[in-house]
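User: I'll paste a sequence; please echo it back and then give the predicted structure.

Assistant: Echoing your sequence first, then the prediction.
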Amino acid sequence: MDPDIMKTLWILFVLLNLDKGYCTKTHDQVLSITPKTQEQVDIVKNVSTQFETVLWQPVSPHFIKEENQVHLFVPANSSTSVKGLLEKNTITYEVLLTKADELMAMQTRDNSTDPRSSSSFYERYHSLEDIYDWINRTIQDSPNTANLILIGSSYEKRPLYALKLSLNNRPNKKAMWIDCGIHAREWIAPAFCLWFVRHALLHYGKNQDITNILDNMDVYILPVMNPDGYLYTWTTDRMWRKNRSISNSSICVGADLNRNFDANWCTVGASHDPCSEIYCGEFPESEPESQAVADFLRSHKDSVQLYFSIHSYSQMLLFPYSCTLDEAENHKDLLEMAKEAVEKIQRYYRNNYKYGAGARTIYLAPGGSDDWAYNLGIKYSFTFELQDRGQYGFLLPPFRISKACNEALTAVKSIALRVIEKTQVARSSV
């Protein structure tokens, strides 16, 4: 046979069999690892720090324990070494995500052609530029109900825009605060803030719960608390968690904004090491993002009664304290509210969420925004960890956005209605 024909047939054969396993490509993966002994714990800690990997769960090697699942993002170039070491030491693992790189590529496709009013727009992840554009469009489309507030700017001088939803001018009206995207890689969080605003504006006057809430409360929403980090996850490193501030003492970049508030700052559960994922910053509110939120809440502490910080992943509804094992003064109220919200999610969406005080439900995490807000006097303070439990983790696919946001919406409305009820009872008894 002619050599050129042979060559052409061979190329066709290779192309046709690319998807049949004859040609294999190594992918970024996420592993679930379960160390059984202290020796295995130490090996897994080393794997998470010595190799080019990213620890998803727990957030720091310090929290890795026997019999507890560890979720580890393993780039393609580390895959053989990491798996080989685990197998050599008979450490149990399974692959949670086989092609994480393909999932990431799919999530960052440009969807900017979607009209802002369409529901499909809210079932996509959006770049920072797109979210800023959405904020401007929202206040243009709803000038009487949505106001723009510039609460500060990030380390790299990007604006921190909050929206204020106010549906009537009742005197002495109370308020609720929701911030999203304090950790850059948790993309479902900003998606929820957009979802909440759309639901509120679309369903006020039609849905009894949201109408009741907005009649009695103004709502402040900060869609992206960490814009520098969020942008960085779109352009450079999808797994980035912290902000992008430069340290005076280290080449490592960024502080964990949720360890930077003045609530038992930088005690057990945070780190003074700028290279750590839970680096607390140089001092409380050293980061402009956390300082901007703290300043805003300090100036509105008489009206803001309810605080939500939206995170992912692990499906939990947490409340103070995370910075100490002590119980909050109104622990019973917070527990009842969280329990009711979680039961509603289970009833409507058949999905289970853990709930409880942060330190006892996961681990000590000082310097968190919810504890700080609680100590400021906002006695109904919650952190929401959205879907999922680890199947996709930080890479929750767009087709899951709707259910994840509706679950969180159900809980936020449930708790807000309870807070309104309690404050009305308190007012009438004065």
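The chain has a mean pLDDT of 92. Residues 401-428 form the longest helix (28 residues).
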